[in-house]
# Entry
Amino acid sequence: MARSRDHLGLLCDVGELAARLAGSSDIQSFLDQLVRMIARHLLSNVCSIYLYDEDAGELVLRATCGLAPDSVGRVRLKPEEGLTGKVFREQRAICEQHASLNPDFKGFNGINEELYESFMAVPVCKGMEKIGVLVAQREEKNSFAQDDVKALRAIASQVASAIENARMLISLGLGESARPAPVVEPPTRVRGDVASRGLACGPAAVLDPAGRKLSFTADYSGNYSLADFELALEKTENQLAALQEKAGERLPESASLIFDAHLMMLKDSAFVGGMRKRIENGESPPAAVLALGRHYIDLLSANPHAYIREKAHDVEDLLRRLLGNLTGAESELDVGGEGCVVIARDLYPSEMLKIALANVGAIVLVNGGVTSHVAILARSLRVPMVIADDASLLLVLEHAPVLVDAETGEVLINPPEEALRSFRERQAARETLDAVAEETERKSFTKDGTQVKLLANINLLSDLELASRVKAEGIGLYRSEFPFLIRDVMPSEEEQFVLYGKLLENRPEGTVTFRTLDLGSDKLLSYFDEVREENPALGLRSIRFSLKYPDAFRQQLRAILRAGCELPELRIMFPLVASLEDFRQAREILRQCIEELRVEETECHQSPLVGVMIEVPAAVALVDALADEADFLCIGTNDLIQYLLAVDRGNEKVAGYFLPHHPAVLRTLKRVAEAGLAHGREVSVCGEMAHEEKYLKFLLGAGIRTLSIDSQYRPALQKKISTLELAECQRTAELMLEQKTLAGVEELL
Ligand code: PEP
Ligand code: MG
# Structure
């Protein structure tokens, strides 16, 4: 039975409360008072406020009167979850007289919510801004009346500004002390996107930013002597040397560079000598290490140059290692150990490298897109990786067993025995799959005998081995910027010459296509501070960067021309070309380099083929002119789709809009293929779309005969090609091109 209230009275109270506390930073007490007041007024057993945490994409219980007090901060739900999520998602009030019967109801363990059957909730919003949800609950069924809903709605609108202030302050970290640590139950099963294929099962290593910080206040009790310190130094040096060697094997590009800074510091008399002096003066060794380390970290962190500031991480890394060796404490905390499953919010390419070197089993990222560059790097480093947009993964307990199926995108936490058994069986089967890879043929043909060239995308030299093993017919895309990205300094012309020499020496037989530096956007050089932009994807990236810094561009071109001097066919292509002028200027610099080298009497390739990447809609509009002047065209679908559909390729929030089968994309691809055909130029596709089997029919039907792909996909793609008839592909492509809607294309796919 509904109980009637003097709702007007409450509105006045709330107005006063809001006015009194809106400017206050005592956020928690404001929210607590508010829920208590509303509960009292509505005679409800429970009143709760959920605020939307944009970073986590979750509604978080921020204050409650009636539910278990420790549920504050712990209870989090996605907008897709529960009745509260529905109120937020649909921005409408819901009044349920028997909540547990509603299929949308979601109960949380241990917060006593199951005791309350009458449920009423209204959205809290301000203009377009969705702020949260206000919920009232009563034990008895059929208890709330329409008047109660109206009252709650009025309260929500009256306190929206004050609640929004509270939410803003919480997001800035204020009110933190009042907020209990958000330890919601971590998920047991999450499905994400596969960024790098593979299977792994191992203990979780959660890289949360706070956990990665070195503690300067840790208490290192225990008696350590100067001799212990010297021993720890020696041990650290040996470990670093071993790591260095491992890095060289896995990634020749960065060979000696990754741990150079660490080793240099270990030998530095001011750094290590300073520690020694403090110990000799009676300070305890751990305290001496921390004091000196902190001094250098502070110095480096205050430097105006980002690449120098980043060195503070190296010092921190070194200190952790040194302290670990001195005291026996955990020192490898930052990237997880061998076989573990790293769970992180996001990663920098350099971190990815360290993780791969630690031989971790797999990575689960909470942010990012599968065509982003860390994903590409994960594939090169053969680390299985899933990207799952679920921040609660960061709550998985350290060392909890995690199974990552980076074939289907499924991540299981504390997997049941049955899943583990199937994992073991599949792993055994994968070993047989390796044998299948070796049976792959060098050439690929459709059922009716049309040849399709399957080239390899190479990001790092470590990719070459697999490319050769699966008999790639050459390199269709060498992403030359990766060696630049994983180093601390720009490689010189000589270093590049040596690197490209190694690439050519170990390449799969066949054509080689160097893509000149594609820096910028998400591929920023840590050591190059000048390019920091508001909107880097539309900024000074790729060929624009090379044209702006022609000295760096020349060094690269000279190194390529010199290294490739004996190749019968050397291909060089320019990324992100948006005009004929871009192409002509780049080609002119290439011509000048050939001329310079000739005058210097340095051996070099005299007549490389010069290609253009089609990645910008403007290049599509000019494709005939470009095809007329360039020797070949290569479609970079990752960027082309990004710019054509205005979807950030690395932003998982809009991943659902990144649609290779969008009718506009299909028509664009067809247009480029036709231009290539009309001008007698080869058109290849080298973005991630090229290896997706579901698009194969379209690509072949549209006239594409060359695909450049990550080598892991070659065996399966070749098999798929052999099942297709060209005439059928053409019919399908035609039908797909007739479609105006996504749904139309999806039906055909
Ligand atoms: C592309 O954009 O499709 C491409 C191959 O280049 P990258 O992924 O390196 O930007
Ligand atoms: Mg690109």
Remarks:
- Residues 477, 479, 518, 615, 636-639, 686-687 surround phosphoenolpyruvate (ligand 1) (CB under 6 Å).
- The two ends are 55 Å apart (CA to CA).
- Confidence is low (pLDDT under 50) at residues 176-184.
